[in-house]
Amino acid sequence: MDTGITSTDVAAAFDEFTHIFEAFKETNDRRLGEIEARLSADALTEEKLGRLDEALEEAKRHLDRLTLDRSRPTLAGPAADPRSPLQAEHKAAFEAYMRAGEGGSLKRLEAKALSAGSGPDGGYLVPETIEREVLRRLAVISPIRSIASVRIISGGLYKRAFSTSGTAAGWTAETAARPQTGGPALAELTFPAMELYAMPAATQTLLDDAVVDIERWIADEIETAFAEQEGTAFVQGDGINKPKGFLASPAVDNGSWSWGNLGFVATGQAGAFPAANPSDKLIELVYGLKAGYRQNATFVMNRKTQSMIRRFKDANGNYLWQPPASAGASATLMSFPVVEAEDMPDIAANTLSIAFGDFRRGYLVVDRAGVRVLRDPFSAKPYVLFYTTKRVGGGVQDYDAIKLMKFA
User: Fold this and answer.
1) Please, is 160 exposed, middle or buried when counting C-beta atoms within 10 Å of its C-beta (0-12, 13-18, 19+)?
2) I need a labelling partner for 229 at 20 to 30 A (CA). Which of 19, 161, 199, 365 fits?
3) How confident is the model at residue 352, as a pLDDT?
4) What would the DSSP string read from start to end of 355-394?
5) What is the 3-state secondary structure (H, E, C) of 275-320?
6) Are 222 and 134 in contact (CB under 8 A)?
7) Exposure class string for 39-64: b at 16+ Cβ within 10 A, else e
8) Cβ pair 402, 229 in contact under 8 A
9) In this structure, are residues 123 and 374 in contact, taking their beta carbons and an 8 Å threshold?
10) List of residues 6+ apart from 24 with CB closer than 8 A
11) CA atoms 385, 386, 391, 396: torsion sign
12) Beta bridge partners of 238
């Protein structure tokens, strides 16, 4: 299925974004000059800067959407997705179920594969091509999933052992005695997979249309719903019937950090950066993370926080925030990638509005294999509902790999 988006469209959107950022920098420089000259900026300059900031965000969203749509492959078709005979049979059976509710072929296939396809609520597993495409799209548009570790599991719970204190070691001479060292203190982290669902609807007329690609339709319908729910849970989830977000972990001052807590750096101002040299706090946050984690670290914040930081400069007058170098790339802050997660809190008194760390080592997402669909033609006539579920969990796996900024 051709999206109609060309590389020329993406390049034009990227050029527009770059042009707006240059205008933003010019206007902000004028604002800073006015503050230095008379301790306050002109109201018109502030208004123009605000409009440019909004235009910059809109241009970035447009660019991201074009890049995502452009990168989507065609699900159907032998050239794009060669299938084994069993996969082709599963696809045909699944399409018959989606269009007409004929589940007999799917039931036989899942019995042959010894698959527990029908759970307590019924339903059947989607073909692997749809599951792979859904997970691939989620990895692109779900902000925390895109930077976290992801593990596929076959059961409902993933357990991981970790050492709270490393194995004892020491120096010794070549012929000296080797006293027995202490063993590591081990504990266990558990990551249960919770059920995430979406319920797209279709008319029977659409389903009867043989031209409509059912695989692509179901992937298109559920990707945004799944991504939004995941995004919230991976940041703020309480762990009750959903993954546990990293902000749900206890937070302590980084100077008194201990395992089981996330360390934070306080700004020294309630709900704000310091008026003088605000970027110093960002530097403190960066170097509050150990070097082994820092080399692969990422900033995570929402759009409003990023808008404020976009105005910061270093001592040489260079902007700390830099736009993406190309379409599809990330903006950077102090040379580290910036991931925009709208579920991060806005800056206010005592909020943890910025995270910085190696999320690949710090946060784990677990996906139970299989996406299930239950066809319901009765509950919302004349529409056919498709109750679609997948099981996913998540939580912090290394408390030393993520640091937070507290506006207090």
Assistant:
1) middle
2) 161
3) 97
4) EEE-HHHHEEEEEEEEEEEEEEEEEETTEEEEEEEEEEEE
5) CCCCHHHHHHHHHCCCHHHHCCCEEEECHHHHHHHCCCECCCCCEC
6) yes
7) eebeeebeebbeebbebbbebbeebb
8) no
9) yes
10) 49, 52, 53, 56, 310
11) negative
12) 244
Q: Are 299 and 338 in contact (CB under 8 A)?
A: yes
Count CB atoms within 10 A of the CB of residue 280.
13
Structure tokens, 25: 């920098």
Q: Going residue by residue through the chain, which has 408 residues, state the pLDDT in tens, using 9 for 90 and above.
A: 455 667 777 777 777 878 777 887 778 777 777 766 666 677 777 777 777 778 877 777 776 766 666 655 554 444 444 456 777 888 888 888 888 888 777 777 766 655 544 444 567 888 888 888 888 888 888 899 999 999 999 888 898 877 666 556 677 777 777 676 666 667 788 999 999 999 999 998 888 887 888 888 888 889 888 999 999 999 999 999 999 999 999 999 999 999 899 999 999 999 999 988 889 999 999 999 999 999 999 999 999 999 889 888 888 888 898 888 777 678 899 999 999 999 999 999 999 999 999 999 999 999 998 889 999 999 988 899 999 999 999 999 999 999 999 999
d(CA 207, CA 221): 14
Torsion angle defined by CA atoms of residues 33, 38, 42 and 48, in that order, rounded to the nearest 10 degrees: 20
Q: Tokens 């089981």 belong to which residue?
A: 260
Give the CA distances from residue 336 to residues 57, 96, 252, in Å, rounded to whole numbers and listed in that order.
Answer: 19, 48, 24
- How are beta strands 262-266 and 336-340 bridged, if at all? unpaired
List, in order, residues 6 or more apart from 84 with CB less than 8 Å away.
none
Find, among 277, 302, 341, the residue nearest to 145 by Cα. 341
Please classify residue 225 by burial: count the beta carbons closer than 10 Å to its beta carbon, then call 0-12 exposed, 13-18 middle and 19+ buried: middle
Structure tokens at 269: 């101002």
The token duo for 345 is 């809190």
The upper half-sphere exposure of residue 36, i.e. CA atoms within 13 Å in the direction of its Cβ, equals 6
pTM (whole model) above 0.90: no
